[in-house]
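Dig into this one:

. . .
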Amino acid sequence: MSENTILTRDQLCAMLNISDTSRQRLEKSDPNFPPKIKIGVRRVAYLRDDAYAWLLQQREDASKRRYVA
């Protein structure tokens, strides 16, 4: 992906198919979760490329766990 589109919290949750509560939990517990970008006093956003990379990493990690005996 070469287009670095900015996503809102709702768009990020929709892209990752997670709830807002799960997003909050992942932000605190997963150091690889896409970082927030502060774009206003009370507004944050996320880069689509960061979210996509995190999603691919989750898929790869799940695949590795599935085949470990």
